[in-house]
Amino acid sequence: MSQRTGSLKTSPKPPTRRVGLMSEFGRFAPNRVFFAMLAGMLSGGLYALAIPLILDAINPPSGGLSYLDGNVGYFLGFKINQGPLAAFFALFCLVILITRAASAILAARISLELSSNLRQRLCKGIVQSSYPRLEEIGQARLMVAVTDDVRRIIGGAEAVPQLMINTVMLISLLGFLWYINAHVFIFVLEAVVFGVLTFHVPMLFATNYFRRARDLYDTLQKGVNGLILGVKELQLDQQKRNEYFDKILSPCERELLKVEKRAISTISAANSYGDLLFFMVIGVIAFIFVNYHQVSATDLTAVVMVLLYITAPIALIINSLPKISMAIVSLRKVKSTLGELPERIDVERPTCHRAWDTINFVGASYRHSGGKTQDGFFVGPLDFTIRKGEITFIVGGNGSGKSTLCKMLSLHYPPSAGDVRFDGKIVDTECIEDYRQNIATVFSDYFLFDRLLGPINDEKLVLARHYLQALAIDHKVQIEGGIFSTTDLSDGQRKRLALVVAFIDDKELYLLDEWAADQDPEFKRVFYMNILPELRARGKAVVVVSHDDRYFHIADQILIMEDGKIVERRYSDGAPVERLMVAVATATVSE
Ligand SMILES: Nc1ncnc2c1ncn2[C@@H]1O[C@H](COP(=O)(O)OP(=O)(O)OP(=O)(O)O)[C@@H](O)[C@H]1O
Q1: Which residue has the CA at smallest separation from atom 26 of ligand 1?
Q2: Is 295 a member of any domain?
Q3: d(CA 64, ligand 1 centre) in Å
Q4: Ligand 1 midpoint to CA 402 (Å)
Q5: 407 and 280 in one domain?
């Protein structure tokens, strides 16, 4: 393929960048993230201040906040000590409530918006991606990214305010500790640093386990897809069913369970260690530390109270870490998947609107990506012309490359060499989208939406009714407000409905891959004798993959494929117009 069209090829996989949850959030909504953090910090700081307030209430004459001390009073019939201090405490709690709720609500909303944004970017990326790239990434990975990963990111993001509030609380409590007794503060700080460092080691292991579990999850999803889609076949054969479970599902499930168990066990052990650490610190202070440093009884009470209080934020920080860790793994997966998809915003493009009468394949070829051990199937080099107002049949044995050729013609597979030309103009990245707009298909692996997509007008509806009638499904399916009354149809009926959908769009090229294969003789006749000639009469280019030699005579051109090459081209009278030597073609493939 020429250099211009070479740009249609899929780009190499981008390297995975390190992605942080907070940096991602910061980039997404910097102002709101700032306010959420500010509110979280304020609430954490105020939480910590509750301790001196309570201590002051217990020990009124100890200075500090004791100026708020007052007489016993009554409120709503309740006897209240130190009225002003109590009122201040209530107000204080209200501010904590507001700041904490504001931080959590803001963070939750940002996380939902970011997740929705990621989901939309993934969906847009999927629809704008080249088809070979999607085949490379695989359905299972895309499904997990759009569903599970995005859900985990929400879970992790919601844990961030917890982490923030409790971290600030922890810092403030340490500050208060310093205010009470500097020696105790230094000792506790050393314990915290030691605790964080020693806690970080198992967390590194846990994150690795989560990463491995995430990869296994893709494989498991693929297996479950196979199970759901192949349930009919598996139900009919116990041996196959057992093998599917024994060799595919169960090993993956076992491995995933093992890795997840390790991750959870590591985290649980680390959590228990984290919880216990502070009780040990309390014990050391109460039983040993006081023997070496001067600590008054009042200070000791305050210190123990702070240390007991400190265990709660530490436990909450520890609990939020696995969720955040999983969210980071998922975020990296989503970002790496996004990196493999085109990040193209729907901006105004110059429209090509190129009218055409012929499509030429000039030495065009395509290679499928192969398995681990072999090269993928090679189709080409192909040289032929499709004309408007003509019907072209593509025939050939199974696996000869007919569907691949169709996907090259529909511009889903960009040629790896040679050109596809519309009226002599090579298809380039600028115009591929415009050329595609004029192609209607029913692929052998078609998908039937439950509605007519795109603008609907009366003319279209009349055409739809005409084809529903012609294909005898008008008694089964009606179109109400653009939506089909049902798509629960037999395979043949569904395919007929897919044909109706393709026909009512006024496209220039109609590509029908083995449409007639599972139709009754009656509908085959309607298809070949009425519908196809009608399309030709409307000046459409019609390409049909067919095995129905009874109807070959209606074709203007027949391309015969074998092993990825067109080995013969005939006109409808059966006289070969061009015979390509298989040996020559084979030699070209091996180049
Ligand atoms: N997505 C794919 N990835 C890798 N190889 C593929 C892919 N699709 C098809 N192939 C390979 O390309 C070859 C041609 O397949 P293709 O579907 O084009 O043949 P076909 O002539 O349409 O066959 P059939 O008549 O059975 O539908 C096959 O050998 C197949 O293994």
Answers
A1: 398
A2: yes
A3: 81
A4: 8
A5: no
Q: Which domain holds residue 472?
A: 358-589
Q: Confirm whether 346 is domain-assigned.
A: no
Distance 368 CA to ligand 1 centre (A): 8
pLDDT in tens, 310-359: 877 877 887 787 788 888 888 888 888 888 887 554 545 556 666 789 99
Residue 447 and residue 364 share a domain = yes
**% of the chain residues with pLDDT over 90:** 16
pLDDT tens-digit profile of 51-61? 777 777 766 55
- For the chain, what is the domain count? 2
92 and 222 together in one domain: yes
Q: pLDDT tens-digit profile of 512-544?
A: 998 888 888 888 898 999 889 999 999 999 999
Q: What is the ipTM of this complex?
A: 0.95
Whole-angstrom distance, CA of residue 397 vs CA of residue 457: 41
DSSP 213-274: HHHHHHHHHHHHHHHHHTHHHHHT-HHHHHHIIIIIIHHHHHHHHHHHHHHHHHHHHHHHHH
CA of 161 to the centre of ligand 1 (A): 51
Residue 29 in domain: yes
On whether the CB atoms of residues 300 and 290 are closer than 8 A, the answer is: yes
Ligand 1 binding pocket (C-beta < 6 A) is 135, 368-369, 376-377, 396, 398-404, 444
